[in-house]
Amino acid sequence: MPIEYDIDEHRRLVLVTGTGVVTHDDVLEHLAELSEDDRYQAPMKKLIDYRDVSDIQISTDASVVIAATKKKLSERFAGEKCAFVASKDAVFGTARVHEARVEGAGISTSVFRDIEAAMTWLEVNPTPA
Fold first, then answer.
1. 115: left (phi > 0), else alpha (psi -120 to 50), else beta?
2. pLDDT tens-digit profile of 51-81?
3. What are the beta bridge partners of residue 108?
4. Is residue 128 part of a domain?
5. 50 neighbors 15 (Cβ within 8 angstroms)
6. 41: number of Cβ within 10 Å
């Protein structure tokens, strides 16, 4: 699966890793799985590491569906602070479009080029205590 995650309950942090090609279905499957995970206790911080994603194959229409799904789940993800890390221009651009589409859903989202900046923005210590 191109999107995997783990939850560091102590730091209240969801660590998401994307690899290879990420599609609309992959993102929707991830959101559904996370929304049903009992370890997720809002509000949480989410670090989405897309540095190893080679391509995001999500059409404009599909990106609207993803944003609508995240807004629909906004009560479950209430107060979430979500940082995307993307080194490739196309992946970075797609993440920025997502950032704009979920605005107003009660989920603070920002996109970064490096993981250190994302961790600083999330106010998370890079190493577990």
1. alpha
2. 999 988 888 788 778 878 887 887 888 888 9
3. 81
4. no
5. no
6. 10
Please give the model's pTM, rounded to 2 decimal places.
0.88
Note whether residue 51 is domain-resident: yes
Q: Does some domain include residue 28?
A: yes
* Rg, C-alpha atoms of the chain: 13
Amino acid type, 22: V
Number of domains in the chain: 1
Provide mean pLDDT across the span 1-13: 93
Among residues 101, 129, 118, which one has the least CA distance to residue 15?
A: 118
- CATH assignment of the domain containing 35: 3.30.750.24
Characterize 75-102 residue by residue with b for buried, 16 or more Cβ atoms within 10 angstroms of its Cβ, and e for exposed.
Answer: eebeebbbbbbbebeebbebbebbbebb
Q: How far does the chain reach from its first CA to its final CA, in angstroms?
A: 29
Predicted confidence at residue 19, as pLDDT, reads: 96
CA quadruple 113, 116, 125, 7: dihedral positive or negative? positive
Domain interval for residue 9: 3-122
Q: Is 21 inside a domain boundary? A: yes
